[in-house]
């Protein structure tokens, strides 16, 4: 494994920790600033919106410099945002810090995916991407529970100060280990936007929104579901989320390995199984052991789609992959926001805390249908390419035969 992948994984660990740890310390933050929990919730939604906007914006701005320099700038932005959050004197300053940190999120994973894929042989690209995303999954197993515990014991400001320090480690790692590869090949904003002329890029991002949105429809409301329906104590939710994080970790590694061998079959399998598991969650959520097992499976199946979807975008936007890759990271967060809103709608309508699981199943099922469409279009495009190539070959052969006859020679390949 190239050591540069380790540097990218450390950066991903810090970013994953700051994204999700706010959910564990949200009551403490609300108390300190004297705001309600719903108001403090803007620290979550504001971060997600910052990712959606920052991913394409900063990626476009980064086309003028090397990917390594851009990754270093993004980690610096991440450090500044978390330092501002740790020292924020007011809630508004805290929100600003969250938004600043979030701007680095999408572009880091988007550019980092391209860098990771370039570090290895073509047949190992998805595995390299999954190794970088391992930092994000480990954050949900170690960083988020650890940060929550520290925040509850020593104060949430200490948590964000530690996250900022992790960002410094990631910055130094990128500076020391990531090779200088020059500017992106397209070298222009127009070249990067050209990737979006390919309908397959849009299909991949739609699959990302719907597929990963299916996961977050359930996970956003996992605390009331586990306490009110499954009957767990509130303190047990932290360990349930650790199980979810372990599922993410395993799913990400397996997804990266099998995506290099059979990308579309993996998507069919993971999205289909995810839809079915979310449907079953409406029943298993009423039994503690089954609920814990199902939660782990949702994490594994949901994150098994990440490496293949990211690689699919890179393959379809091969001439200008950076912006498309970053936009796909934004699509994950757009899916999170959409699913959380839809889940809240069905709960508010009186359908109960398990209703978001039905929403998630419908979203993931829709992503499965789109994957069938993407595979069909891919097969048709390859068939058309073979026909065109065959026509060109036949035309060239006929042209040579005509030239041979005009010169009084037997056509090439003819018997004597």
Automatic annotation (TrEMBL):
GO terms for cellular component: plasma membrane. Keywords: Cell membrane, Membrane, Transmembrane, Transmembrane helix. The keyword Nucleotide-binding does not apply. This is DHA1 family inner membrane transport protein. The keyword Transmembrane helix applies. It is found in: Cell membrane. InterPro entries: MFS, MFS_dom, MFS_Efflux_Transporters, MFS_trans_sf. The chain crosses the membrane at residues 42-61, 73-96, 102-121, 128-146, 158-178, 199-223, 235-255, 262-283, 289-309, 330-352, 358-377. Pfam families: MFS_1. Residues 4-382 form the Major facilitator superfamily (MFS) profile domain. It is a multi-pass membrane protein. GO terms for molecular function: transmembrane transporter activity.
